Amino acid sequence: MERELAGLAEALPDGRLVTGAASLEAYRRDRAGLSTAGVPLAAVRARTVADVSAALAWAHERRVPVVPRGAGTGLSGGADTPDGALVVSLADMTAIREIDPADQVAVVEAGVVNAEVSRAAAEFGLFYPPDPSSFEISTIGGNLATNAGGLRCVKYGVTRDSVLGLEAVLADGRVLRTGGRTVKGVAGYDLTRLLVGSEGTLGVITSAVLRLRPRPRGGPATFAAEFPTLEAAGAAVSGIVRVARPSLLELLDNMSINLVEDHARMDLDRAAEALVLGQADGPNAAEELAAMVAVCRDAGAASVVETDDPADAELMLGARRKHYEACEARGVPLVDDVAVPRSRIAEMLREIDRVGRESGLLVSTVGHAGDGNLHPTFILRRDAVAEEEPRAWAAAEEICRVALSMGGTVTGEHGVGALKREWVREELGGVGLEVHRAVKAALDPRGILNPGKAF
């Protein structure tokens, strides 16, 4: 294989091919705490679509598995590498090719960090809505691969809702371009939406045409409400989405509140059973906020703090954004990612609490409550991972089973990756799996693209 790799090196500009165990360690896995990863054969640090095309053509000819990789911030093992795989890293493809204020689009490469898109668009009074909690470190390519959500998706939708077109390299190295720059377009199958969320199993996305939106005139108007029970918080969330259109609506349970306080000292009430954070934007932000606050008080909130100051709002939202860091500071996290109909969020919170108590493990739940998307996070003691890991997996499986029984899904935004392959079978069903396999076979007949991931 060394001779074969020499051929790949010749097909690439100098410095693009990475070999050697020490250098490849950084390319083996993503941020999922309990996933397993092998030793890659090599990594390609692509800077152009031609680099990606050369790498895939080489791998396709030799039937070498390929794992596409962005910043490695995923939480489902989607970038974990099997032994002998070729990693194709898009992290160096960082060009924002264009910001078009007239058509309200951005053309960006896969390695651009999410937050950089909105910063570039701000000059024109525009912004890019999808904002996963990792928005300051995760890349657009990874967001596209997993159809990432974020705090604002309750109003503006997930990543798929902000993508107009893609450039992607197929398994054999051919370059596919889908969609375009128009808001409407129904020619042929919707290949853009097919590739978004496919987790690198159908093609390697190298750039995208993203839909920007005008920055809201008015707001943000933000509140933080503390509740004495999970049921009261769940009732407030259900009530809010009936009377208002929040631009974000987040929830932290008591364990999350205390973990964040231990990690960052944000003056949260450690006795509160739940903290709900909400925000409204646009010309009616003040009225929307008043309606949301009234619902919280009627649901039994112990306290409600309001602000129309953007700086104060960011401090409030920091409690939510710091949650995963706080979990990592405490132990080894296993993050679950389920979603249920919003009317059943209080019931799901009760079930998560039950499963956590029965497992005997530390579990901390946060979530995009306005979407019914919750992230129960099991935190394993670093000196007892081997002992606690089987219980964590069993508990996570039970939570997925309960979510499905409520008409929900086993993953709302993190993707299936390697961690949820078994659980997704029940959700997709037999016919659904057959269709997935047929699509996969059509676009990747030799099965080299991110094998063992997604389904």
UniProtKB/TrEMBL annotation:
Keywords: FAD, Flavoprotein, Oxidoreductase. Belongs to the FAD-binding oxidoreductase/transferase type 4 family. The keyword Oxidoreductase applies. The keyword Flavoprotein applies. Its cofactor is FAD. It holds the Pfam family FAD_binding_4. GO terms for molecular function: FAD binding; oxidoreductase activity. This is FAD-binding oxidoreductase. SUPFAM superfamilies: FAD-binding/transporter-associated domain-like (SSF56176), FAD-linked oxidases, C-terminal domain (SSF55103).
